[in-house]
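Incident log, structure service

09:12 report received: a user says their structure output differs between two submissions of the same chain.
09:20 pulled the input from the user's history:
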Amino acid sequence: MPPVNRVLSPEAVPDLQAYIAEGGGAAITATREAGGDAVLRAIEASGLRGRGGGGFPTGVKWRAVVDNRSPSLPPTVVVNAAEGEPGSFKDRTLLQRNPYRVLEGMVVAAATVGATSLVVAMKGTFTEEIARVRAALEEVREAGWTEGLEVAVVEGPSEYLYGEETALLEVIGGRAPFPRLAPPFRHGTSLAGEFSETTAGRVMASDSDSTAAPPALVNNVETFANVAGIVANGPDWFREMGTEKSPGTIVCTVSGRVQRHGVAEFPMGTPLAEIIETIGGGPEEGRELVAAMSGVANPLLPAALFSTPATYEDMQEAGAGLGAAGFIVFDDRTDFAAVAAGVSRFLAVESCGQCTPCKQDGRALSELTDRIRRSEADPPDLTAVEDHVRTVAEEARCFLASQHQRVLSSILELFGDAVAAHTTGGPAADEDPIIPIAGFDDDGGRFVLDEKQRRKQPDWSYDEEDSGQAPADRVNQRAGDLAGEDADA
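09:34 re-ran on a clean worker, output below:
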């Protein structure tokens, strides 16, 4: 199946008028004519699933927001553009090429759920995308698309957890990116005094515990980019591509040990081998591909299963996962002890520390796997890794610890002998950093990684030495110090 261009424009759309000339804006017109109920039914019928990684049915989420609306305050529509998954660059590519399609999807969503405010949440380091979105927002405002809507662009921190849905809402509310205890559709962006000033410890409302606080509708960039086409052309058009359970298209990123890196859009159900070959050109000369990993959220998929269709259900059945479709590819030069150490370091550093096993077991895994990579370990160290893998996800409020567990378990299952070899002597492996993408080198045809992340400490500082405190503890301590200073004053 060749690449398509339903949501990923083949080149940058220069301005709003160019987008309108190719059919843009039709979904807003259709929404105003048909009404929110009809739009919601179309989204549900389309079978669109969230493209942020979880694949949650979009219609179900929108319906939940509608059903849980506050009697006194309107909801907020938020686009999660805080892309930080290692191996993924599709959301930034979508915004660079055509922010208008994403904004149109947000305006449609606002009309559907009764929202009066839109929030575009990005990392402050995404300077190119921020400038592009701000310019596009000015254009759509002048065109009347956002009339009656309050629109804000939030430039958030670089932390990985900023991309977690509930942590993103915490940042919008002016707090640190610490995941909440319950789904965001039960509580929105913020009400003064509703949440802790420190960690996100408030248990949210349930069906039996009503609240006046408004819900928030949070969707990924690619999810909103699909909305305009569904509303303008109908759910049957959307289902012309993909499968019954995973309809539509998916925007994929390919990086790692292939001939070239890049981003392209494919019908759901395209075999992973074809995606890697089309974007990446296959293995480098004289090499053989052995596995691929979708970010740091899912188990590795061995090359023997690269014929697996890229759908949520097929990738899961194969023992891996589609995630955000950001595939890091490994070849026969890869030392998977180094991959395990790279994954562990990233997840241990990015853990916020609200859940003790996630941070403590995570740090232990990072230290142990790096010792194994350096061939400075003994067989009992590998046993210790297995022990910490079993407990790292206990009582976790978000998925980060489960990611640690899933990825390391798959490496040990698929490449355990190669990892174990480092505990009985032999040469050390070079570092294989598993870190987010910072940009694209047009001349080299490869992604540039965020090298600053390699200096980040587990306490989220960039000091020469780690303080030993979890980020959540540091925030609580600062809040307590400030409270003490206010009391003394």
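09:41 both user submissions now match this output. Likely a transient worker issue. Closing.
09:42 reviewer note: Confidence is low (pLDDT under 50) at residues 190-199, 202-209. The CA atoms of residues 437 and 449 lie 4 Å apart.
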